[in-house]
Design goal:
Layout (H helix, E strand, L loop, with lengths): L1 H15 L13 E2 L2 E2 L1 E5 L5 H18 L4 E4 L8 E6 L5 H6 L12 E7 L4 E7 L2 H12 L2
Length: 143
């Protein structure tokens, strides 16, 4: 029963990652209890952005027992999936990945997209403020 519940939660989480019509089942986050994703925050991340990454890390750990690493945009990632989050000022990587950023995000809005690159899949959470990044993180982990 416990495994079935964990599978259901991960399936639901992967389903919400299908934000740009990428095939959600192909976005590896955890496989057989091993982390397949890395969380990436900007080197200039605010405390809210750091907390957002920690919340995603905690949620995934709680349901899979796998702990995703949190790295900055200045550190190399080695996993097939990266969850990059931040503001344009704190994490330049999120701006480089998104060619179109919704100009109407305001202080609390966020944008989430899945981008397929040659060597990895990147889930991008971008906002204008740390509070928006935190809201985007909760949107990613809510079922």
């Amino acid at each position: 029963m416990k495994r079935t519940f964990h599978f259901f939660v991960l399936t639901a989480m992967l389903t919400i990652l299908d934000l740009n019509r990428a095939v959600a089942a192909n976005v590896p986050i955890v496989k057989s209890g091993q982390p397949m994703a890395t969380l990436q925050i900007g080197a200039l991340a605010s405390s809210q952005e750091q907390f957002a990454a920690e919340e995603i890390q905690t949620f995934i750990h709680r349901f899979t027992n796998a702990k995703l690493d949190i790295r900055t945009n200045r550190e190399r990632t080695l996993t097939p999936t990266v969850i990059a989050l931040g503001t344009p000022e704190s994490n330049p990587t999120v701006c480089q990945l998104l060619t179109e950023i919704d100009g109407n995000l305001g202080d609390e809005g966020y944008q989430i997209q899945t981008i397929e690159l040659e060597t990895e899949t990147v889930i991008v959470i971008i906002a204008n403020t740390g509070r928006g990044v935190l809201y985007g993180a909760y949107a990613l982990i809510e079922v």
